[in-house]
Each structure stands twice: as structure tokens, then as C-alpha cells.
Amino acid sequence: MNCKHPDSRETQQLLKLWKAVFGEYDGFWELFLDTGYQPDHCCCMVENGRVTAGLYWFDCSCGNDKIAYVYAVVTDPAHRGKGLCRKLMADVHALLLDRGYASVMLVPAEKGLREMYRKMGYDDCTTVSELDCTAGETAAEVRCIDAEEYARLRRKLLPEKGVVQEGENLSFLAAQARLFAGEDFLLAAYLENDQLQGMELLGNTAAAPGILRALGCKTGKFQIPGQDRPYAMLHKLKEDAAIPRYFGLAFE
């Protein structure tokens, strides 16, 4: 069974597999292919002409280290229990090391997956907190921005040893969320069931109630830097790779 970059036919098979395992989500995966996808950042396992497992990675960095954020790891349910995921990850680790990456990061969707990745050499490295609040009486000054400005402001507001996520990361982010800035904060968010979902709020997190008032939302949930729960995991490819302390944008 071979690990390889997918051709156009295999990409469509992988897309079908992603949809079957993770859900359709109203065109989410087509959006991913249009805005975030690069075939040379994707690897899949192929058996008898069929994709049985696959993953994708986004380029990130921390200091001088080049980091791969591994995303959408999937195995065909009919082929589970054969060690395909472990082999795929090992092959991709070797490929990434050869391409000069210092480490690999991922964000497990559930506790069971966190334990699975721990057995593959990953360790917890970053944490986040969540802020639930209601709209305040006074609106904050909020303006819409594009991905380019978000990238520039984000570098200024990232916590120490934060992971820089730009390029396809922000193209994909801008396609699924709205980007906002204020005098001392930065926000990527979307509306779900009349509640604002803040994928990342950096800077002055106390501005959250005023942001809700400005955007006409009664309630909101914001992901912010903090230590309440484990978030990203790290696998070092190089012994001297830095250990990031903040990773904010996980595409679930």
C-alpha cells in the first residue's frame, strides 16, 4: 500500500471520504478545496486504486521553525484496525523532515484521539480558554478587515511563542468566518444559531461584551489564549525544534 500525493481522481475520492467520515457541512469541503488545498500538502494511502486513508497539512511557523499543521486525518471505516493511520503518519513525518519542517502540530477533536496521537509521539504543547458572555451596554469600535490585514495585526498580538498561521490558513479562514479588528483586539468569528462563535480573540479579551453589542449579537463564545484545556499537540521532527505555547486557528 503506497503513501503518495493524490492525483485529481484520488483527490475526489479523498473528498468523498472526508464527507463520509466528518460530515457534509453545506459545502465545507468544496470550500476547503477552493481556498486552502494544495495537492503537494496532501498525502493518502492507496490500495487497488482506492484511497483508504489521507491527511492534509497547512504551513505554519514559530520563530525560525517551519511547522506543519496536520488536518483532516481520515481512515476509511472499512480499513480501520490495519495500522494505516500509524503508517500514514510515519511516512508523512519522514517526508516533512526531508522538506525541512522542524515539527508537526495537530488538534485532536476528542480525548480518545488525543491518546491515539500520544502513542505516535505527540505531546500536549498548547492550551486555550473559552469566554462565554452576553452583549454589554456599550458597543466597541469594530471594523471588518481582510486576510492580509488580519495577518499583519495577528503577528503583533500573538502571545509569546505563538504559531504564525498565514497563507492558505487565512484564505481558508476568511472563506468560512468574518474577520474584525478594534483598537486593541483581533477577532475571527461566525454566527451559529444566533450566537457569535469566536474562533480566535486576541488582544483585549475584555472587549468581548462590547464586540457583541457592536455586531448585534446577544451572546457569544470566544476562544482566547489561556490554560483551561489542552489544545494542540506537537511531534518534534528535529531534536532542537522549539515548543510553541499558543496555537489558535484549528479548522474543525
Mean pLDDT: 95
The geometry reads as: globular
Instruction: Output the structural class.
Output: alpha+beta
Percentage of β-strand residues: 25-35%
Q: Which H/E pattern describes the elements?
A: EHHEEEHEHEEEHHEEEHEEE
- Provide the helix percentage: 25-40%
Largest sheet: 7 strands, mixed
Count of helical stretches: 7
N-C termini distance: 28 Å
Total beta strand runs: 14
pLDDT under 50 segments (min length 5)?
A: none
Radius of gyration: 19 Å
Which strand order spans the largest sheet, edge to edge or round the barrel?
1-2-3-4-5-14-6
Can you tell me about this structure?
Helices cover 29% and strands 33% of the residues. With 252 residues, the protein is an alpha+beta fold. The strands form two sheets. The protein has a seven-stranded mixed beta sheet. It has a seven-stranded mixed beta sheet with strand order 8-9-10-11-12-7-13. Helix 2 (28-35) packs antiparallel against helix 6 (168-176) and helix 5 crosses helix 6 (168-176). The protein is globular. The relative contact order is 0.17.
Distinctive features:
33% strand; 252 residues; alpha+beta; 7 helices; 29% helix; seven-stranded mixed β-sheet
Condensed summary:
With 252 residues, the chain is α+β, with helices and mostly antiparallel strands.
Helix/strand layout:
Elements lengths: L1 E3 L3 H15 L5 H8 L6 E6 L2 E13 L2 E11 L8 H15 L4 E4 L4 H8 L4 E2 L2 E8 L8 E2 L2 H11 L10 H9 L1 E4 L3 E8 L2 E9 L4 H8 L3 E7 L3 E2 L2 E4 L16
Parallel strand pairs: 4-5, 11-12
Antiparallel strand pairs: 1-2, 2-3, 3-4, 5-14, 6-14, 7-12, 7-13, 8-9, 9-10, 10-11
Helix pairs in contact: 2-6, 5-6
